Amino acid sequence: SQQGEEDPQALSIQEGENATMNCSYKTSINNLQWYRQNSGRGLVHLILIRSNEREKHSGRLRVTLDTSKKSSSLLITASRAADTASYFCATALFNTDKLIFGTGTRLQVFP
Amino acid sequence: DTGVSQNPRHKITKRGQNVTFRCDPISEHNRLYWYRQTLGQGPEFLTYFQNEAQLEKSRLLSDRFSAERPKGSFSTLEIQRTEQGDSAMYLCASSLPAREKDGYTFGSGTRLTVV
User: Fold this and answer.
1) Which residues of chain A from 50 to 109 reach within 8 Å of chain B, CB to CB?
2) Which residues on chain A are in Cβ contact (under 8 Å) with B104?
3) What is the pLDDT confidence band of residue B101, given thresholds at 50, 70 and 90?
4) Are residues B6 and B107 in contact, defined by beta-carbon separation less than 8 angstroms?
5) What is the C-alpha to C-alpha distance for residues B105 and B91, in angstroms, rounded to an integer?
6) Is the pLDDT of residue B59 over 90?
7) Sign of the dihedral defined by the CA atoms of residues A76, A80, A83, A85, in that order
8) In this predicted structure, what is the pLDDT of residue B73?
9) DSSP state of B69
10) Closest CA–CA distance from residue B40 to any residue of chain A (Å)
11) Quick one: what percent of chain A has pLDDT higher than 70?
12) Best CA proximity match to A49, nearest among A89, A85, A84
């Protein structure tokens, strides 16, 4: 079963625009992570935010976490064509090392 | 060490045959995970190991599936009597212990097609 659901399922933007993806989850978490997957490839870890953090930045990425609403958002600023990929949120629960992945957002950035 | 390696990259098999996939994790990572991903979906957890111990198995892992990590290094995932519904990408990942974890490192996956 998948705990996280991403919204929107698909997003198309022009280069230079910002892209925002949202993730909702169901149960209390230890941390939440975002991954990128290019077509037919493995996933690449982007950023991890712990349950006691509210915002985190890494380069052009900004992640927020609202544990009261059980939601997170990933903002990619000044998007590039190379950002075209699927993006997944994944939640780490307490007392287990496994990650539970969401359904993903497919981002298309047009040059 | 160039990351997580999975072999083969692609496997086409006839229904009813057995298949085995191999995963070589990053050497200092003691956690190893198997996931399955179908088209348009997120990865679904199958099982994970801490060193050679299999700590958790998903209900998705029927009795036709078995995973091993005999020496705490590489791992194998075997599917017996394959069915068309087993067609998917099988992903392996590894990580450091939880207190130091900064995410998983994934391999490129093995794409299984059952015909």
Assistant:
1) 88, 92, 96-104
2) 35, 43, 45, 99
3) low
4) yes
5) 10
6) no
7) positive
8) 92
9) -
10) 8
11) 97
12) A89
Who among B41, B89, B103 is closest to A103 (CB)? B41
CA distance B75 to B97: 17
**Model pLDDT for residues A82-102, shown as the tens digit of each residue:** 999 999 999 998 878 889 999
Tokens, residue B61: 């892992």
| Chain A residues closer than 8 Å to B43 by CB | 43, 88, 101
What confidence score (pLDDT) does residue A1 get?
47
**From the CB of residue A16, how many other CB atoms can be counted at a distance below 10 Å?**
11
Across the interface, whether the CB atoms of A88 and B43 are under 8 A apart is answered yes
Is B99 in a helix, a strand, or coil? helix
Q: What percent of chain A lies above the pLDDT cut of 90?
A: 81
Whether the per-residue pLDDT at B1 is higher than 60: the answer is no
The residue with greater pLDDT, B97 or B25, is B25
B42/A101 Cβ within 8 A: yes
Check CB contact under 8 Å for B45 and A99. yes
State the DSSP string of A90-106: EEE-TT---EEE---EE
